[in-house]
Design a protein that fits this description.
heterodimer, A: about 120 residues, alpha/beta, 5-stranded parallel sheet, 5 helices, 5 strands, B: Leucine-rich Repeat Variant, extended
Chain lengths: ~120, ~375
């Protein structure tokens, strides 16, 4: 069976390392991006089955990246990861079509379970 | 003579060349070490992440890693990214491999300062309760930054026995350390309220700096339980700085119970207390103080007038009072009112309505006043 491809976009090396390690051990193929523009360009290719997207990144904000993808017809499901702990960000994320929202700091097994669930839908 | 001068020049030149070469070598070594450490840190982050994601992970963590600063940095970074049982997993890694013990030894050593400071920062960041006793001891360290890190670590772990010790040091610390100590108290939440109040009650008659820092810390904590004691402090206090801090904190806490004692302060001969008092009444949003705030627009001090106008903009019905002041006889009150109305967006709204051809009477008054067209 072909491995699922996940794009992990976060400007924190700790987060990308942590998620890459956890996801690769779980049998996924992981690509990382560290700023908004790189994320946008990678996501535009449409090769990913899921994106884990940080909200606060240099270049473009996570929600701006989603807006641009939508304008170009990219339909990859997005889980927004954010250290901004306000309801507005959560609501904005879902309004823009994010399939899930995870607050930082997060529980690794919980995030993995959300990824598994989303990829099985 | 010429030969001696030439020789001296040569020696100076050679010495300078050696010095420059030494500095370049030092900088290069430092840079290489930095890169190697960053590389090791990335490797350790992967290792720690595997242990976090998969608790049955058997990848070895060696004793040499436990003393490597790069490993410590990796643990701290991952510690800040995760929550819940993963933090316990990290704590287990740190305990089993002697990371805490190593850092505690470094902190206890007499020198060098840089190493002691890094150990203090590491212990503060890890926030592991096994270091609580050591951190309490180092609240009286000879180095201010180590004292601050010790307080920060204790706050991070919420080690409540440390509150009294931290508060007790307010009187003897420099303003900088005191302010940082006050910041760390936020980590304890409302558990810090009563020790702070006890300290203020006992000391506000005899000293200034400590109680003022404690009172400001209460504003940051935002615990309404402090209101009653602060009301009593405001009744009793004689030091103007203590009074000012108390008035500000009562405003920040926002309890209507503080309104009567605050109203009394509006008669203070000290303009600073009057200025802070009107701001506090505005923050509480007390409608019953509208007359008092409107009268403060004619205060002899411009700062009081300015704060009173800003406060009126925050209280229900206060904007009407500002418009009344605008057409009143007191030119200074009118200026303060106009400035506050502009800050509240009234001027922009008035100009918009005028532009749309549907101005209200008071729109013309405000715009006229701002353009220097006074009645």
């Amino acid at each position: 069976m072909e491995k699922k491809r996940i794009l992990v976009a976060d400007d924190s090396e700790t987060i990308t390392t942590l998620l890459t390690t956890a996801l690769e051990s779980g049998g996924y193929l992981v690509t990382t991006a560290t700023d908004g523009y790189e994320t946008y360009e990678l996501g535009k290719t449409g090769v990913f089955d899921l994106v884990i997207l940080d909200q606060l990144m240099p270049g473009l904000l996570g929600l701006e990246v989603i807006d641009r993808w939508q304008a170009e017809g990219v339909t990859t499901p997005v889980i927004v990861l954010s250290g901004v702990d306000d309801d507005r960000t959560v609501v904005d994320s879902f309004d823009r079509g994010a399939v899930d929202f995870v607050r930082k700091p997060f529980r690794v097994p919980e995030l993995l379970a959300r990824v598994r669930h989303r990829l099985s839908v | 003579m010429t030969e001696v001068a030439q020789l001296a020049t040569l020696i100076i030149f050679a010495a300078n060349a050696l010095l420059v070469a030494g500095l370049i070598a030092l900088k290069t070594t430092h840079r290489i070490r930095g890169r190697q450490q960053a590389k090791r840190k990335r490797r350790y982050m992967g290792l720690v992440s595997r242990h976090i994601a998969y608790p049955n992970c058997t990848d070895p963590i060696t004793p040499a890693m436990a003393t490597d600063p790069a490993f410590l940095d990796a643990v701290i970074d991952v510690r800040n990214a995760v929550v819940g049982p993963e933090v316990e997993t990290l704590r287990g890694i740190v305990d089993r491999h002697g990371v805490m013990a190593h850092q505690i030894r470094r902190l206890r050593s007499s020198f060098p300062l840089g190493r002691r400071l890094r150990a203090a920062v590491a212990l503060a960041e890890l926030g592991d309760e096994t270091a609580a006793g050591v951190l309490i001891h180092h609240l009286s360290d000879r180095e201010p930054e180590i004292r601050i890190q010790a307080a920060k670590g204790l706050g991070r772990m919420g080690w409540t026995p440390a509150i009294d010790v931290i508060v007790g040091r307010f009187a003897t610390e420099t303003p900088w350390v005191r302010a940082r100590f006050a910041d760390t108290l936020l980590g304890f939440g409302s558990a810090a309220t009563w020790p702070l109040l006890a300290y203020i009650t006992v000391n506000h008659r005899f000293e200034r700096e400590g109680p003022v820092a404690a009172i400001r810390a209460l504003a940051a904590l935002g615990d309404d339980q402090a209101t009653q004691t602060l009301i009593e402090v405001l009744h009793e206090a004689t030091d103007p700085e203590v009074k000012i801090a108390t008035v500000e904190t009562l405003g920040a806490l926002g309890s209507p119970r503080a309104v009567p004692v605050l109203r009394n302060q509006i008669r203070s001969p000290d303009w600073r207390i009057r200025a802070k008092t009107v701001t506090a009444l505005g923050e509480i949003g007390d409608v019953g103080s509208l007359d008092l705030l409107a009268r403060a627009l004619t205060d002899s001090d411009w700062w009081v007038r300015r704060n009173a106008a800003a406060a009126l903009a925050k209280v229900g019905g206060g904007v009407d009072r500002l418009y009344e002041a605008l057409i009143g006889k007191d030119r200074f009150a009118a200026d303060a009112a106009a400035e506050s109305l502009a800050d509240a967006g009234e001027l922009a709204a008035a100009r918009r309505r005028i532009g749309e051809g549907r101005p209200r009477e008071r729109d013309m008054t405000l715009v006229g006043h701002m353009s220097g067209d006074r009645p």
